[in-house]
Specification:
The chain is α/β, with parallel strands linked by helices. About 35% of the residues lie in helices and about 20% in strands. Helix 2 crosses helix 7 and helix 7 crosses helix 8. The relative contact order is 0.11. Bound molecules: guanosine-5'-triphosphate and zinc ion (ZN). Zinc ion binds next to helix 9. The site of guanosine-5'-triphosphate has 18 residues, from helix 5. Its main location: cytoplasm.
């Protein structure tokens, strides 16, 4: 890799502002990949292989993070504040929240101009982007197979004031060029969406990688692409594309704020309901249902809003329960250890 400047890596005045006199001599670096024992990062001094200090887990860091490092010792000193953070609820593991990517400026929400186009799914992704702090861009691939791609754009943009949408052919010569405004000059971009919508095709176009979708798919029994564990890949325009396996399995996590942003109009109405705990279904004095009755609010939109809120609440409850279970488990282990020590002591 050619030498990169901090600006190339996405460094901004917001980062400089976080430096203190004590940081003199430390090397700013952008985290590329994180494994259990090691962090690889990119810096103006070249790629770095880093370990954490003392007992700190590498799990505190994620692709896209900015850190300050002792480059000579190969140690991470500290992490700078994150502008944005994509997380997901970890399935089955003890951890509640799994970090997916940090400092993603624009989240490309990929769907296609066909049966994959699903309003509820788009709203869920929009809420995810909003709760992470990323600018959402709805990318409608396979425009070449649709009769009226503009109609898809209009329907996508109608979903929320936050949404801008572009219909495109991901396989066209100019595919990367179309996405350039979001993926050049140190900007960080990431792609989410269902399987088969064209994420790999777009990623390859943006990074100038060989088209891996044609042959690799057949060879790989699990249907995985060689490109899924890339971490931080430079785009042909000098921006960054974050592509990690976790990106492919994002779920709603702590998204109340995000849902509120996507459904700002509905949220505003809920403030006017007669009862504070109004479920916006059949309660008297419900401003949301009143708007539906008056024809100023779409009933289906309200249904989708309520469904997302419920989904987010259930996730939150599940994580509280898990935390409680973990506490019980810790207590139990302590008791068992204490008991076995007592036993050993008797021997
Ligand atoms: N005609 C047409 N085909 C496309 C377009 N985008 C993607 N494809 C094709 O759709 C198929 C799936 O594309 P991928 O890029 O592998 O999709 P993906 O989102 O990475 O899928 P996963 O890796 O399963 O998540 C491939 O055969 C692509 O060539 C498009 O805009 N137009
Ligand atoms: Zn109500």
């Amino acid at each position: 890799m050619t030498t990169l400047t901090l600006a190339d890596l996405g460094w901004s005045p917001r980062h400089s502002a976080q430096l203190t006199d004590e940081d003199a001599g430390a090397t700013p670096a952008r985290v590329n990949k994180v494994s259990r024992s090691r962090i690889t990062a990119l810096s103006a001094e070249g790629p770095l292989r880093l370990i954490t200090q003392g007992e700190e887990s590498t799990g505190n860091y994620v692709t896209g993070d900015w850190v300050l490092a002792d480059a000579a010792q190969g140690i991470v000193l500290r992490r700078l504040e994150r502008d944005t953070l994509l997380t997901r609820r970890a399935a089955g593991s003890g951890l509640d929240t799994q970090l997916i990517a940090a400092n993603v400026d624009t989240l490309g929400i990929v769907t296609s101009c066909n049966a994959d186009f699903n309003i509820a799914r788009l709203e869920r992704y929009l809420a995810m982007a909003a709760s992470a702090g990323c600018v959402p861009l709805i990318i409608l691939t396979k425009s070449d197979t649709a009769e009226d791609p503009r109609d898809y754009e209009r329907r996508a943009e109608a979903l929320s004031p936050l949404a801008s949408a572009i219909a495109m052919n991901a396989k066209a010569e100019d595919a990367a060029e179309v996405l350039k405004p979001w993926a050049d000059n140190g900007q960080t971009f990431a792609l989410v969406g269902s399987s088969g919508v064209g994420k790999t095709t777009l990623a390859n176009a943006l990074t100038g990688a060989e088209d891996a979708t044609a042959g690799v798919r057949e060879d790989d029994a699990k249907g995985r692409h060689t490109t899924t564990s890339r971490g931080l890949a430079q785009t042909i325009f000098g921006g960054w594309l974050i592509d990690t396996p976790g990106m492919r399995a994002l779920r709603l996590n702590d998204a109340a704020d995000g849902i509120g942003a996507v459904f700002a109009d509905v949220e505003a109405l809920t403030e006017q309901c007669k009862f504070r705990d109004c479920a916006h279904e059949t309660e008297p004095g419900c401003a949301v249902q009143a708007a539906v009755a008056a024809g100023t609010l779409d009933a289906d939109r309200v249904k989708r809003f309520l469904k997302l809120v419920r989904e987010d609440e259930i996730n939150q409850e599940a994580s509280h329960e898990r935390r409680a279970r973990e506490r019980d488990f810790k207590k139990m282990t302590k008791t068992v250890i204490a008991a076995s020590k007592r036993k050993r002591g008797k021997k």
